[in-house]
Amino acid sequence: MFKRILVATHGTEGAKKAEIYGIGLARALGAELHGLYVIHRDWSSLVGIEWLHSSHARMEFYRYAESEFNLRAKEVLEAFKQHANGMEVSTAIKVGEPAEVIAEEAKDSHVDIIVIGASSTGRSEEYKARISLKKLIKLAPCPVLVANNASTIMREGGEVELSRTKVLETVNSE
Amino acid sequence: MAEEKATAAEQKEMEERALSVFASERREDLTALIIAFTLAILVIITLK
Amino acid sequence: MNGVKRSPAALIIGLILLIYALILKRQDAAVTPGLLIDLATYLKTTKTVSTQVGVGLWAGIIVTFFGLWNLAVPAMKSKFDKLVRGPMAGIGTIILLSFLTRYYLEPIFKIWGKNAEKTLGFDFAAMFGLNYILLGIVIGIIWVNTIGVPGWMQAGVKTARLSMKMGVITLGAMYSLTELRYMGSLSIIMVAVFVMGTVIFVLWLGQIMKTPKPLTGVLSAGLGVCGVSAAVAASPVVKARGIDMAYSIGMLLLVGVVGLFTFPTIGRLVGMNELQFGAWAGTGILNSAQVAAAALIFDPKTIETLKVAEIFNITRILFLPFIVILLAVWFARGEEEAEVGKVSIRKVLIDKFPLFVLGFILMFAFSTTGVFTPRNYELHGKHFYNFKPDEKKELRTRDLKKIQAFIESGQVTNPEVKSALEKLVADRQITSTAQTDLVLKASDFTEDKDLKKIFKDADKKVQATPKTVKTMREYMMWFFAFGLIGLGMQITWQTIRQAGGKAAVIGVIAGVTKAVLSFFVCWLLIKGTI
Lengths: 174, 48, 530
Description:
A: alpha/beta; 6 helices; 48% helix; elongated; B: 2 helices
């Protein structure tokens, strides 16, 4: 049914749940994983009200910040790969509006289901970029699974193992 | 390999994005200087 | 970006401007006033009609012209298309917005404020300074956070920076040497104390709260020197991570926006004068754009506050490279990686020195040569004078008699002052700058309030701002209004939302401390006017 699963991750608490569900689902179904990190395009408007630098100085900042955000994205995706050890994982880093980019990536890389995390209330040391669920559902070419705040999965040990059973249960009951 | 290629393409795309954001401001200060002084000189010529 | 495809946006905006200006012009000339003139009469903006028509026509013609062009010829990737054709639609929209706020919203709020005074007990419009600058910024913020800035406007919004720079450069022509010397020395002392104080305070706070070193570095620059701009300059130097930048910039924007809305009201409540408020805003408000905005919200009619605030602003900008170097040294200390410390001082100084500050200085030098002062006009102190004999400048016979009596009473012991007064009575008006000073000095010899007022009037009557300076002031205000509205459109909730973690705590502590301390220093220690 699901041969290729797109997991949108971001390093936040909510996104980690998406990772767990995605990996669990992939393992249960023997599907491929595709990890996607979206750098919110609005980060470049962080410096919006800055006006006094020469364009050279601003460009330097832009380049630097871009490489920093890329670095972080790579870290998160690397951790995701480790998490799914032994499984086939492809990854991508994209810039843009999260919902649009996720839908587009799902189309381009022919995935069968998108897994995203619900917005978490806990504080994460990550750039805050919410996915507009309404927009994503409208644009997505396939079903969207939202890993919600089933926090028990996170707290108890053996994260992936436990989540797998949970995920299996949900899949079987459908 | 494929992945590396993708990163390179990504890098290029980002570069282009960066340019599109900032290209118009490459000589922003100089432009401001020229416009401000042109206006000032125009004021002197027409109103003084 | 995509602003210059075959887009009808510029044409529509241009036509709106043009049609508005033409209707206004027609109604102004007609015998029976039309709706717009009736509205202007009600809003008491009839005096501005000629400016509105002039600016509206010119802006309308230009934007419409480029609008037609944009529609007829699809944009290429040429420089001209990017720099001129692309931004036109956005520029036109911001001009329309400033028309709306300056000539409609501000007067409406003025009337509402007056009407509400009876029930509220105070005039809320005057109290909160609801003038066109503030309203423009507020509309900009609301706009970008609700419907967002559409693609066709983006290129235009980005020209706000250019506009701010042109405003500051033009402002350079408005200072006299004495003013600049006084404000400059004051600002160097204040800025040095508060910049260094805040930087050290934040570094210390960071140590106590055990925040990561890069975050502390970015925060200290941002909170100490000039907000987001300083954070931009410092981030690469202290190797800030993405999250450090997001946290700090979000917080700096938040504290800055709160300052922007509270400073003018507080300043007005305690009755600060232009110098005090300009100095306070110039020291206490974080972001440099918001300093200019606060000064104009406090006092949009004259530019005195803006002049003070902007000098402080420029002083801070000049401090920035040194703080960046200092942070580089601080960061390198104890770091294992040797390359981190390798910051070329010369490179930082050249890179971080904005050319427009040089433009400001050049413009000031240009104006001190007197090129903006037409014949018959003289710049003395901070006022322009015109001593050419004119009936309008003459004092009333009644007042002259009073002065005559004052001279005869023998109260004036200074012979120079006495002869100056005698000359005044003979000429019926002041005829030189030296005489102006002496006549004003005559106030010291009397307690009579009427006499003091007469002396002041005699001075005021020969004061005259030349048309050159008036024009420059007018278009400079347009530059600032345009720039501030455009920059307001970049204050996004998405950015402010990033504020969080320990950065928010440090930011609030340091930001508030700086604002409060500088408030008391400016309010209690700065006495008198310029």
